[in-house]
Write a structure and sequence with these properties.
GO cellular component, one term: membrane
Largest sheet: 5 strands, parallel
Number of strands: 5
CATH topology of the largest domain: Rossmann fold
Number of helices: 6
CATH architecture of the largest domain: 3-Layer(aba) Sandwich
Structural class: alpha/beta
Mean pLDDT: 81
Protein name: 11-beta-hydroxysteroid dehydrogenase-like 2
Strand order of the largest sheet: 3-2-1-4-5
Keywords: Membrane, Oxidoreductase, Transmembrane, Transmembrane helix
Low-confidence stretches: 1-7
Pfam families: adh_short (PF00106)
Strand content: 5-15%
Order of helices and strands: HHEHEHEHEHE
Shape: elongated
GO molecular function, one term: oxidoreductase activity
C-alpha cells in the first residue's frame, strides 16, 4: 500500500512539475531526443559490427555440425526450385548455386529481361531447364499463376525460395502517408505469404522445403527502418 501511494505521489509530483514548467520539460525532452538521434545510431552500428560476425560464425558452425544446408546437403538433380526475386542479388546467385547442383529452376521477378539473362547463365552452370515468369509477388493472383505454371511445366515443386524484397529508410515520425509504406509490406510480407500459401500443397507431396530470405532487422530494430523491420 505504501509503495502504491508513493508511486501515485511521484506521478502527481511529476505532473505538477510539468504543468508548472512546460518550457523546461519540452527543453529536456528535446535534449533527450537529440541525444538519442545522435548517439544511438552509431552505438547500434558499432554493436552490430562487433556482435553479428560472432553470431553468424556460430550459426554457420552449428549449421554445419547439426544439419546440412538446403544447397549442399541435398541431391538437387531432378528437383524443381522456385525462386522469387531471382533477377539480381541474392536470388540470382541462389539460382546459380541450385543450377550447379542440377536443379531445374523457376525464376520469378518483375524484370523479365534480367530473368532471361540469369536463366541463360544458370543453364550454362548445369540447370537442365529454367522457366522464366515475369510477375509481381505483391499480387495474389499472379502468385497463384506462377506456382501453377511451375507445377504444370515440371510436374512437381521441391523448394520454394521466398527471396523477393525491398528496403526503405524512413523514420516513423516522418511518415506523412500510409500509402507510401504499403508497397514495402505488400512485397516483403505478402510477397512471401502468397507464394507459400499456393505452394504448400505441392511441397507436401514432394516433402519439399520452404526457404525464406529474411533480415536481422526483424529481431533487432534499426533507426529509420521501422516498416522494413516489421
Amino acid at each position: 500500500m505504501d509503495a502504491h501511494v508513493g508511486m501515485n505521489g511521484l506521478d502527481s509530483f511529476s505532473m505538477r512539475v510539468a504543468l508548472a514548467h512546460p518550457s523546461k520539460c519540452r527543453a529536456a525532452m528535446d535534449v533527450i531526443h537529440k541525444f538519442i538521434h545522435l548517439v544511438l545510431p552509431p552505438v547500434i552500428v558499432v554493436t552490430l559490427c562487433l556482435i553479428l560476425p560472432f553470431i553468424f560464425t556460430m550459426k554457420l558452425v552449428f549449421s554445419l555440425i547439426m544439419r546440412p544446408s538446403p544447397l549442399s546437403g541435398e541431391n538437387m538433380s531432378g528437383k524443381v526450385v522456385l525462386i522469387t526475386g531471382g533477377s539480381s542479388g541474392i536470388g540470382e546467385h541462389l539460382a546459380y548455386e541450385y543450377a550447379k547442383g542440377g536443379a531445374s529452376l523457376v525464376l520469378i521477378a518483375r524484370r523479365e529481361n534480367s530473368l532471361r539473362e540469369v536463366a541463360r547463365k544458370a543453364v550454362g552452370l548445369g540447370s537442365p531447364d529454367v522457366l522464366v515468369v515475369g510477375a509481381d509477388v505483391s499480387k495474389v493472383d499472379e502468385c497463384k499463376q506462377f506456382v501453377e505454371a511451375a507445377v504444370n511445366h515440371f510436374g512437381r515443386l521441391d523448394h520454394l525460395v521466398c527471396n523477393a524484397g525491398i528496403i526503405s529508410f524512413c523514420a516513423f515520425k516522418d511518415v506523412t502517408s500510409i500509402a507510401s509504406c504499403t508497397s514495402l509490406m505488400d512485397i516483403n510480407f505478402w510477397g512471401s505469404f502468397y507464394p507459400t500459401y499456393f505452394a504448400v500443397p505441392h511441397l507436401k507431396r514432394s516433402k519439399g522445403k520452404i526457404i525464406v530470405n529474411a533480415s536481422s532487422s526483424g529481431w533487432m530494430g534499426s533507426p529509420a527502418m521501422t516498416f522494413y523491420g516489421v
